[in-house]
Design goal:
This protein is α/β, with parallel strands linked by helices. It contains 17 helices and 17 strands. It has helices at about 10-20, 25-35, 50-60, 80-95, 110-120, 130-135, 155-160, 165-170, 190-195, 230-240, 250-265, 275-290, 300, 320-330, 350-360, 400-410, 435-445, and strands spanning about 40-45, 75, 100-105, 125, 150, 180-185, 200-205, 215-220, 245, 270, 295, 310-315, 340-345, 385-390, 415-420, 425-430, 455. The longest helix has 14 residues, at about 80-95. It is globular, with a radius of gyration of 23 Å.
Length: about 450
């Protein structure tokens, strides 16, 4: 394993990496960083969870001049969720570099607040193509001093129809720049994009061959599509996973399936591109903080959803492409945890199944429905609930204020409180179900930092 200390990184970055516990590079970092640090254009093909954000994040920060308040780097992402995740990683990497400003310009957030933030300058912009282009059109964003451009999850941006927006944004960028393209797959559209916008790029392909080693992958064959839901219920009751990500191929199917599961008392919520951004944010947050057990999603909507310990992934619909299938199941079995990946298939999936078997270089494992325990009827319900508070960063609220109020004033143990997400105007708190009502009453009938707030439990 190659250490980060072997790279020509600044002392501040190396010290911060050490403090964060980053010692050795992942394969994509070891392959790409030495080349990126020379200033060359790069096409890097690697799956989600491979460490690519840290790879390009270190490259952007290594040559950044924090004393110049102009936009020196731009990262384009397909979704707001991924843009926010990338922003958080960049801020974490920049902790020991004074005055570095990373700004997220994504749709679904108030444009006026973003415009006001831009007036004070930003070193790195992370955003979605639609919002970034709108800011350029309105002349509230200036890229004349841009030095590096990153196209993150480029294949999904093209799948979502952002080719023209990317083209328009690049027309505002200096010709003399470094461009980095990261993609999980390399279809013809990505090749066209690279030929048009990158200069003599170095292509790096990192095959995560060990990806499935901690994943038990099982396929079930059904005679009829209509029988899938009954089998899905049986599988959920048999395995009782604490959290399950279910993939469907259409937006309509995610809504229908989530409603059917909810009707049968499962804790399930849909995630797709037709939902309002605020609803998508809440769906992801509830799933991550374990106040919702099942997330039913499309591939595009789930892109950027990074959960370290996800017990199970179920393909209600088999993916159309082998690369997408591999990407889906790679979300479980991470960080030393055992994972379970189940695929429900019909005869129409035969060609796709052959492609998956060829990629695995071994026969598929087929499950027997008769071996499932059908006596289990108790639905696995979440252990947490999410509490909404009408106060956030604008009110000088910090996670410690929430934790202190619940432990010192209400008398709860710290173990009964989960993730605390403080936004600009509001806060979400994950709390054990048995203490949720007490916490709700505590905030509605008391004060937080001397002021009255409204609280409610998300359903």
């Amino acid at each position: 394993m190659q250490p980060f200390s072997s790279l020509a990184l600044t002392g501040a970055l190396l010290n911060n990496l050490a403090s964060l516990g980053y010692e050795s590079m992942t394969p994509i970092q070891a392959e790409s960083l030495p080349i990126i640090l020379t200033g060359k254009d790069v096409i890097a093909q690697a799956k989600t969870g491979s460490g690519k954000t840290v790879a390009f994040g270190l490259a952007l920060l290594n040559r950044l001049d924090p004393n110049i308040y102009t936009t020196q780097a731009l990262v384009l992402c397909p979704t707001r969720e991924l843009a926010e995740q990338v922003s958080q990683v960049l801020r974490q990497l920049a902790r020991l570099i004074p005055n570095v400003k990373v700004l997220n310009l994504s749709g679904g957030l108030p444009m006026r607040a973003q415009t006001d933030s831009l007036k004070h300058g930003a070193h790195i912009i992370v955003g979605t193509p639609g919002r970034v282009f709108k800011m350029l059109e309105n002349k509230t964003l200036n890229l004349k001093n841009l030095q590096r451009l990153v196209l993150d999850e480029a294949d999904r941006m093209l799948d979502m129809g952002f080719y023209d927006a990317i083209n328009d944004i690049i027309s505002f960028c200096p010709i003399d720049r470094q461009t980095l393209l990261f993609s999980a797959t390399y279809p013809a559209e990505i090749k066209k994009l690279a030929q048009q916008f990158l200069k003599d790029p170095k292509r790096i392909i990192v095959e995560e061959k060990a990806l499935t080693l901690d994943i038990e992958q099982v396929f079930y064959a059904l005679d009829n599509q209509k029988n899938k839901y009954a089998l899905l219920k049986t599988l959920l009751l048999h395995h009782q996973p604490e959290s399950t990500l279910i993939f469907c191929n259409t937006k309509e199917q995610t809504v229908q399936l989530a409603k059917m599961l909810a009707h049968d008392k499962f804790s399930a919520i849909a995630l797709n591109g037709d939902m309002e951004q605020a609803d998508r944010d809440v769906a992801v947050l509830r799933f991550k903080n374990k106040s919702c057990s099942i997330l039913v999603a499309t591939d595009v909507a789930a892109r950027g959803l990074d959960i370290e310990a996800l017990p199970a992934v179920i393909n209600f619909d088999l993916a159309y492409e082998c690369d997408v299938h591999t990407h889906r199941i790679g979300r479980t079995g991470r960080a030393g945890n055992k994972g379970l990946a189940i695929s429900l298939t019909t005869q129409s999936d035969s060609e796709r199944l052959t492609a998956i078997e060829t990629a695995l270089m071994q026969p598929l494992t087929w499950g027997e429905v008769s071996a499932l325990d059908k006596s289990k009827q108790a639905v696995m319900l979440p252990t947490m609930q999410t509490l909404y508070l009408s106060a956030g960063k604008k009110d000088k609220i910090r996670p410690g204020d929430i934790l202190g109020s619940l432990t010192k004033e209400l008398g709860l143990s710290a173990e009964s409180i989960g993730k605390i997400d403080v936004g600009p105007l509001y806060t979400y708190v994950a709390i054990q179900c048995k203490h949720a009502t007490a916490a709700l009453n505590h905030f509605n009938h008391g004060k937080l930092k001397g002021r009255k707030i409204n609280a409610r439990l998300l359903k």
